[in-house]
Specification:
By secondary structure, the protein is of the alpha/beta class. It folds into three domains: 74 residues, no CATH class; 174 residues, P-loop containing nucleotide triphosphate hydrolases (Rossmann fold); 71 residues, no CATH class. Helices cover 38% and strands 24% of the residues. It has ten helices and 15 strands. It has a six-stranded antiparallel sheet with strand order 6-5-4-1-7-8, with no helix packed on it. Strands 10-11-14-9-15 form a five-stranded parallel sheet, with helices on both faces. A two-stranded antiparallel ribbon has the order 2-3. β2 and β3 form a beta hairpin. α1 packs parallel to α2 and α9 packs across α10.
Length: 340
């Protein structure tokens, strides 16, 4: 019988460290992140016999060989199944390919709502905005009102209601990018729930008196037929506030939820390397391959000191390399790194 050692994980918010289990199902990715399915080894009393343990990535587990005798599992020496860089980049690429495919489906109206979660600076907004620009191209050429909009930053409840009304037609798309303040306001959150609802008819209502709505001729009740993409840096399953988690669970149940699962430093660095390898990251700098490799190697060497691991950071360092061929590393140490 196969067995597994979980080096670092959680079950129902309880830590799991270096514990061995009988394996039911191997490493998988679901709506709430990565997990493995195992037999409860007695560590979690009054819990199901089969449980899912959440892990950040595949390096948090070790597969082992096990034999059962008299209901006892005898573990042999653990053999680490390591994910190669190539495998990891393929996994990451697949996630972003899915993001592009889902965005196209949202633009076409086949999918009405999607939430995209991932760390800042990994390019999750870029792919979405590229598809939105394509969708609006014919509108621009024809001089028509654009059928899609990307909303960035803070949004008030009344502003959210107005935006939903403006793009309420069935061929319209709204992208909320880095608008996490919506999730922290009960009124705005309820409006978003209404827009993301999976029911056949989505009715959005504003039950308070508003001179702003009257001035613009916006009714206090309308049917929303458009599509919504909500891009966030938050991981919904890791929020500490139970009240907020309940709201976020309600949002997840209403629409598609895509977690890009770029949670480790290694994954972020491989994503940067991947975009550079594709010729996209440094395309405006006219760097040869050796210079690009120098920048990536510099980030790898200093990953624990850089203020963040992101595509934006790679471009900041590229700016310094273009500015000073001889002194760019010293400049980067001064401007891009945390104090020692």
């Amino acid at each position: 019988m196969s067995a597994i050692c979980v080096k670092n994980g959680t079950y129902r918010n309880r830590p799991v460290r270096n514990q061995e289990f009988v394996l039911v199902s191997g490493f998988q990715t679901g709506a709430k992140g990565n997990y493995v399915t195992v037999k409860n080894n007695g560590t979690f009393p009054n819990c199901p016999d089969t449980i899912r343990i959440s892990v950040d990535n595949i390096s948090d587990i070790e597969y082992t060989n096990g034999m059962t005798k008299d209901n006892t599992v005898h573990f042999e020496k653990s053999v680490l199944v390591a994910e190669t860089d190539e495998d990891a980049m393929n996994r990451i690429r697949e996630r972003f390919d899915i993001l592009t495919e889902m965005t196209k489906a949202t633009v076409s109206g086949d999918i009405r709502a999607m939430i995209v979660s991932g760390p800042p600076g990994v390019g999750k907004s870029f792919g979405v905005e590229t598809e939105i620009e394509k969708a609006c191209l014919f509108d621009k050429l024809a001089g028509k009102r654009l059928r899609a909009e990307v909303v960035k930053g803070s949004a008030t409840p009344i502003g959210l209601f107005q935006t939903l009304y403006k793009y309420s037609d069935e061929n319209c798309v709204i992208v909320f990018d880095d608008c996490d303040s919506i999730l922290l306001d009960d009124v705005a959150l309820n409006l978003l729930k209404g827009a993301l609802d999976s029911g056949k008819k989505r009715t959005i209502s504003w039950l308070s008196e508003s001179s702003a709505l009257r001035r613009e001729g916006i009714p206090d009740r309308f049917e929303f037929k458009g599509s919504v993409i909500f891009i966030t840096n938050l991981k919904f399953d890791q929020m500490k506030s139970q009240k907020l988690r309940d709201h976020l669970d309600a949002l997840q149940s209403r629409c598609h939820y895509l977690d890009l699962t770029l949670d480790s430093q290694r994954d972020k660095l491989l994503r940067i390397k991947q975009i550079a390898k594709d010729g996209v990251l440094f395309q405006d700098y006219e760097f040869d391959e050796a210079v690009q490799d120098d920048i990536i190697d510099f980030m790898l060497t200093n990953k624990d000191r850089l203020r963040e691991l992101s595509l934006r950071m790679a471009l900041k360092i590229a700016d310094l390399r273009k500015m000073s061929v001889l002194n760019w590393k010293r400049l980067a140490e001064t401007t891009c790194m945390k104090s020692a």
